[in-house]
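Re-running the complex after MR caught last week's input typo. The corrected sequence lines follow. Everything else is unchanged.
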Amino acid sequence: MKKSQRTPYDGIVIAAPVTIPYVRYSIESAQWWIGRALGALVGEAGIKASDIDGLCVSSFTMGTDSGIGLTQHFGLCVRWLDTIPLGGASAIAGLRKAARAVQARDADIVACVAGDTNHVDSFRLTLENFSRFNQDAVYPYGTGGANASFALIARNYMRTFGVTREDVGRIAIAQRANALRNPHALMKAPLTLEQYLAGRPISDPIHLFDCVMPCAGAEAFLVMREETAASLNLRAARLLSTIERHNAFADDPMQVRGGWAMDVGELYAMAGVKPDDLDIVQTYDDYPVITMMQFEDLGFCKKGEGAEFVRAHDLTINGDFPHNTSGGQLSVGQAGAAGAYLGLVEGLRQVLGAAGPTQVSNARLGLASGFGMINYDRGLASGAAIFAGPSR
Amino acid sequence: MIDPIKPPRRKNPLLRTRLPASPPRPRSRTSHGFTRAAAEGRFMLQRCEACGAFAYPAREACPSCLSADLAFADAPRRGVLLAETTARVPSDVYFRERAPWRIGLVKMDCGPTIVAHLHADCAEGAPVRMSFQLDKSGQAVAFARPEGETPNMADDRQWREMTADPKFRRVLVTNGRSVIGQEAVVALKAAGAKTVFVGVAEPWRPFAGEDLLRRQEGVEVVTLDAADEKSAADLAADIGGKVDILVNTTEYVRAGGLLDRKGTSIARDEIDQTYLGFINLAQAFGPAMRLRGADGVNNSVAWVNILSVYALANWPAFGAYSASQAACLSLSHCLRAELRPGGIKVMNLFTGPVDTEWFQTVAPPKVAPRAIAQAIESGLKNGLEEMYVGDVAEEVRQRLAANPKALERELDR
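Corrected-run output:
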């Protein structure tokens, strides 16, 4: 079967990136967080809730609700609705679907929102009920979540490519430096390489500062056509290209690459740019070793050269490769499915010149990626998007 | 390499007793194919009948060809450990108490990759031998051991969580008058049991083999008549807190079914001795065993029943006896559920006619009492739940699976 040419995202824009600042624990519900994000979207865009005619929701902690329950809950009357349970790939997947919906005029303004609460037992309940394979063949092994699964992937990756903990630590340390400029980051103390290396072991080789902190929060943005944004007088970023892939490289005995590697050529070709052209990059950093894998799979260096790439670049806001400028999940916190949105929302703020204290000067072209759903032994979902600010 | 475990010291009553906890228990229905395999000590994976590919975890369709024809089949046990990790601070209560805990990802020679508990001697890049074991929740988990024997292999801390090894444990064999009971004592002592308590009813009455029993070091003859509620309770009051393994060798075999007997007196004895005896033993010893399910190196681990395979299909020549055994089998499932919170295994050994006086009219093949004793030992060491001892038992099992009606008709002869 011949692969057909994809339709470009001409005239599709993303506007009003909003973040509801995270808290470690919240007694509120996921619906409360999502409601606040929708309220912030409306406020930021200067529209009425009734102007939203498409809704795309991601959350782990909504209980029995899905998107449909939320329409009545929040008084929205939409003609396009999606609920995306793809964990760390939810933002890219949601953006892709919303973009096509507004392009085809099935909707004019789609609100993409992700939010999760974090009660003291939320994380455990999410783990227990994550997936069937996880229930049958991972959770009984006592590892309680992704730490041990990623530990196996990290150990194999680090051994295969000669990567040290110092190499991986550079990513976490640079992100902490970025986070110190973000007033909403949960991690507020500087992190040195010595402190990183001295972090207590969680599941070898994963140590404390390789892990994200589960928290509550929400993130959102609006997807619409250029003319809609113009009529609303909204500054918006143009969507240039996206990729999405699930269960890639199933024959690899262990994960050393994500689905990006399968589609990365198309990602840049569709956008008409090269990796070097990007001003800011926001990867999905549930563990820094996964970020290193993305540097390779997203074409910034070859497979196995991730450590060298990290050593050769300054990943901070003022560095030569500004990366996860808000501090990323590693330093801001992981608000469930909102963790998927964190990078994309921060990236949008960057190219819109609205990132405030974390702003990279002259950021015009950005990339955000997602990764999610460690269903059994590997992350299954991957995605990425390239977008440009109005000045490019 | 593993250091041998040391004999446990006398328990300090001031220290906290570690209470039983259960590893995560939920499984999909299909995944219980592994439970069945683990119960019998088999290594089975789903194999696609259409394309021959093995699959794991449990699936409803073949990931190679989408055929729904996935059957659990015995699979090659060999694999290679790709990567390992040691969980230091698991969130699960069971594992947190036992951390650090080592797991790994094994690439099986037959295809799938399996997340498995690791024996301490497993090394990355080296071959391993995979099995399914029943963990303390009673559910199946994959366990990787080194391909060859290593020193003190069975003393591995994680392996011992999966098994009921008699080493350093204290055992109660409920009936020392029976040959099976006497052979069991010898086998369990040889397997390293610290003490074997042997129940004897009316101990002033001499019995064959008594001298040998009393002469063995680490064997204590105790008074126990399982059919007597008070006798069981009295013994439990004395030694109930130090019974780590209970081997129920209570037996009462009489020929005959319904019409050739008059009245219910023999049936009543059968029920008194075996069924009510089971209840008396369970009520006397079960609660303390359940409470002591995580109590150190010599924690309480297993309850063993020796059942006639005719518990599964009535043999009219011994019809009432078969029925009493069926009742005990049913009770064993109840006991298994009730001991489960303590992580105590209930192991059933099914045997055909045993080579003892009560089966004197039955033609061979018959099962030697020693074979039953050896099966008890190996079942405990491997953490099994179901064993079929001898050719008759194995044959009945297969015929029952093939056609229960054929078996019923053919047992009537």
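None of the earlier attempt is carried over here. The first strand of chain B starts at residue 44 and ends at 48. The mean pLDDT of chain B is 96.
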